[in-house]
Write a structure and sequence with these properties.
149 residues; two-stranded antiparallel ribbon; extended; 5'-Nucleotdase_C_sf; hydrolase activity
Length: 149
């Protein structure tokens, strides 16, 4: 079992022991959106960590710099997404409310949507389809890792 994190929630860089009593450096930043964890490691010939350093970078006082390339990319991506809203991409035969029933639970509804997407691509001779499912609209899906599932 891991030792508990420090009691002070502002303490974001700490070490704790893993189950095999190895000290592990932990950078906790999720509670504070203006903190960024920076962890650098070097591995030896056996792929064991030989040197490491870690720090927390506090961006709470900094003024963000706008990057025109990123802003242009975001604008074009947003436009592509908005263009998709006019097309009906998938239809469910059941309400997507995550209640159990005949093909109305999360796995079946989500699975049917993904399967229908794969069939749609396959009928068009597109075999390398990228399909993403985002929680929302009633989907109560668990984490699905990227890859061929």
């Amino acid at each position: 079992p891991l030792e508990p994190p420090p009691a002070n929630p502002k303490e974001t860089l700490f070490e704790r022991k893993s189950s095999d009593s190895v000290l592990v450096t932990v950078i906790k930043t999720s509670t504070f959106p203006f903190l960024l964890g920076d962890l650098s490691i070097e591995l030896d010939e056996n792929n064991a960590i030989s040197v490491y350093s870690a720090q927390v970078i506090d961006y709470s006082e900094s003024e963000p710099t706008k990057n025109s390339t990123v802003l242009e990319f975001l604008a074009s991506t947003l436009q592509k997404q908005q263009d998709l809203f006019v097309n009906e991409l998938a239809v469910s035969d059941v309400p997507l409310n995550a209640t159990n029933g005949i093909c109305n639970n999360q796995e079946c509804t989500l699975g049917n949507t993904v399967t229908d997407s794969i069939i749609w691509y396959t009928k068009r001779n597109q075999y390398d389809a990228a399909i993403a499912v985002y929680p929302g609209g009633g989907f109560q899906n668990t984490l699905i890792l990227e890859g061929k599932h």
